Amino acid sequence: MHRMHPVPKLFLLLLFSFLCNLYMDPIILGLVMLVLFWLSGKSKIPWKWYLFPLTITMLSLPLRVLFGGAIWMFDASWYRVYGKFIDVGAILFHITPAGTPIIGETAMSVGSLLYLIQETWKRFIPFQIIYIYLYTTSPSELCNVLAGYGFPNAVMFILTASLRFLTMIQRNTLMVLNAQKLRGFTTKKSRNPIAIFRQYTPLIVPIGRSMHEMTEGVTRAMEVRAFGVRKVSPFKPYATTSKDIAFTVLWVLLTLFMVYILLAYDIGRL
């Protein structure tokens, strides 16, 4: 991954993201996660980087249960594929009875659980894709390639600033987490979303407070370096190798095949 041309690499990861948004089968999404973890291992990404997306995923889980629609999707008619093999309408537990004002009947069924799992995978996979690209591609390398293709300064500014900002968020989150652990920060198991939010307040408040400062710092740093004043000239030519082209074409064909089996045979749907 480190030696791959930045543009085919970006194209590859964007196709990964496209398939993950298109598919809803938790088994296929789980396999995609395993492939991305394998690429992360090949790229030698530190596993502690995944503490941040894991924290975000777990914090947002109660919100996805309450507002993500899963608790209203207990009807078996919602599920075209899994309904042929398992009883997706089997109720695991009721949350509110029929006739409840405003929200009506809510429950967690087997189908709702499958929907919730795939939604959780879809929240975690983008972090894997971003981390792989960030760790194997430096912002200067990406800027140089985009300049070689004649991209506008505004586009390069947004991309490079975003890359630097994401690395700062990841580093700041780990720093805050380690600092709070030294102060005795712990969490307890709870089913109450408000109690969970209060437990993670020592993390959310300092991280949220530093967001504005980091945004301002990245913007000023790039302005001080006169980024965007004139057209950026590439300082190093990047030639696309035959392997990069072949790999890109192969992955495009595989993506088209995956879209075809989804539309023709419902493979990848719930």
Keywords:
single chain; 270 residues; mainly alpha; 2 domains; 9 helices; 4% strand
Structure commentary:
With 270 residues, the protein is mainly alpha-helical. The protein folds into two domains: 1-137 and 241-270, no CATH class; 139-238, no CATH class. It has nine helices and two strands. The chain has helices at 6-22, 26-42, 51-67, 110-136, 139-148, 153-182, 193-199, 201-224, 242-265; strands spanning 91-96, 106-109. It has a two-stranded antiparallel sheet. Helix 1 runs antiparallel to helix 4, helix 1 (6-22) runs parallel beside helix 9 (242-265) and helix 5 packs antiparallel against helix 6. The radius of gyration is 22 Å and the shape is globular.
